[in-house]
Amino acid sequence: MALSEQEVLAGLAELIHDETGLPQDQVALDKSFTDDLDIDSLSMMTVVVNAEERFGVKIPDDSVKDLKTVRDAVDFIVKQG
Amino acid sequence: MSVSQTGPQNGFEIKLAPTPRGSRLVSLGAYRPRRVVDNTEICTFIESSDEWIQQRSGIAERRWAADDETLVGMAEAASRQALAGAGLTGEDIDLVLLATMTSFSTTPTAANLLQAALGTRGGAVELNSACAGFTYALALADQAIRAGNARNVLVVGAERITDIMNFSDRTTMFLFGDGAGAVVVSAADEPGIGPVAWGSWGEQSEALGVLPLLSDVARGLATERPLLFQKGQSVFRWAVTEMPKTAAKALELAGLKAEQLAAFVPHQANIRIIDAMTKYMKLPEHVVVADDLRHTGNTSAASVPLAMEQVLSSGRATPGDLALLVGFGGGLSHAAQVVTLPTLGPAGASRLPDPAPLAS
């Protein structure tokens, strides 16, 4: 079943909260992972690993560096989901 | 049809040595270089901060070897402590297994030199499986003993990572340290080393390595010295997704549950990897998790024995306790097994060899 943008955003917000403790309502589409949410490279990888399992998608290492904003990640997952 | 080339029907029979039921870690030795390098000093090499380094790695300080703290010298110091703790001398050792990725002599190997320094008369071989080297060597020691080929094996992990460290790479140079750890493994009626869960992931060889290749230097295709590089995110992903499975397999092979463990001693790569592993493994809270890297950094093949030494010397675990060892890293490769922890050899026995006398 196709994933909706809202579902993926809510799921990512939960995964980011689990990893960093950041309040889920701060995870908005226009936020940059590094500049706004202060997520470092290893936390980003943890979120990616957990997102793969949660959404049943594959996010290769080479694609991770292109996921600069929450929207980039949501779009990537929705496209595959 | 089964093929049998040997056997009494052919007029000869290959006799096998009597075999003990198992093997165990008897005694442990460690050598930590004298020079302590804190994160403030690291920031004289790279643009960084103590807070950033600790947050990214958990490492507050590490040890760097001086010129006289050679690979073989550090290995010898750790070995002498392990031998003293086991009440053995070099003559009692049937096999020396030295795991390292920083030996620059293709032959003789550092294992030959260590064997000569200790005066052992059995076999000696160097093996390299990067950060998984010690746990690989431990598995091979167990197998050599259970095959009847050795009674006592000296298993050593020793590294001078600073010899291959890129001092201007701000993503890796704060991670690494030097040192050596050694264990005497002996035949035992009750097995103290479980079956190994090992694997190689050469498909991901580009995640971590040393370049340029010495073969390229030899052919004149490169002139710079070989240095370590690492794609941290790739190694991190592999470690946190695959190593919990490896750990579970080592437990399963030994017929044990995580609840029965007293200690978890993973390769000391990065506290973030260790934290993620323990979380994914759902390790019970009573299990002591080794975090020697806070004061030692990542010492590659030396990290597992040094981390065992740390949990024992700090009193967080005691000899005979059940521990799960997981070595993993460059290759990529891994090896894990359950062991009973050894005793610590007398600390005073871990001494560098005297400098060679000047030729007259």
Q: What does it look like?
A:
Chain A: Carrier of the growing fatty acid chain in fatty acid biosynthesis. Chain A: Belongs to the acyl carrier protein (ACP) family. Chain A: Pathway: Lipid metabolism; fatty acid biosynthesis. The complex is a heterodimer of chains A (81) and B (360). Chain A has 81 residues and is mainly alpha-helical. Chain A has one domain (5-80): Orthogonal Bundle (Non-ribosomal Peptide Synthetase Peptidyl Carrier Protein, Chain A), CATH 1.10.1200.10. Chain A has helices at residues 5-20, 41-55, 61-64, 70-80. In chain A, α1 crosses α2 (41-55) and α1 (5-20) crosses α4 (70-80). Chain B is α/β, with parallel strands linked by helices and 360 residues long. Chain B folds into 2 domains: 22-190, Peroxisomal Thiolase, Chain A, domain 1 (3-Layer(aba) Sandwich), CATH 3.40.47.10; 197-343, Thiolase/Chalcone synthase (Peroxisomal Thiolase, Chain A, domain 1, 3-Layer(aba) Sandwich). Helix content of chain B is 29%, strand content 23%. Chain B has a 6-stranded mixed β-sheet with strand order 5-4-6-7-1-15, sandwiched between helices. In chain B, strands 8-14-13-11-12 form a 5-stranded mixed β-sheet, with helices on both faces. In chain B, strands 2-3 form a two-stranded antiparallel sheet. In chain B, α3 packs across α4 (110-118). Chain B is globular. The interface between A and B is small, with 10 and 13 residues.
Outline of the structure:
The complex is a heterodimer of chains A (81) and B (360). Chain A is mostly helical and 81 residues long. In chain A, 57% of the residues lie in helices and 0% in strands.
Which helices and strands appear, and what pairs or packs with what?
The complex is a heterodimer of chains A (81) and B (360).
Chain A: H1 5-20, H2 41-55, H3 61-64, H4 70-80
Helix pairs in contact in A: 1-2, 1-4
Chain B: E1 22-31, E2 35-38, H1 39-42, H2 50-57, E3 61-64, H3 71-86, E4 95-99, H4 110-118, E5 123-127, H5 133-146, E6 152-159, E7 179-188, E8 197-200, E9 208-211, H6 214-218, E10 227-230, H7 232-253, E11 263-266, H8 271-281, E12 288-289, H9 293-296, H10 303-313, E13 322-329, E14 333-340, E15 343-344
Helix pairs in contact in B: 3-4, 7-8
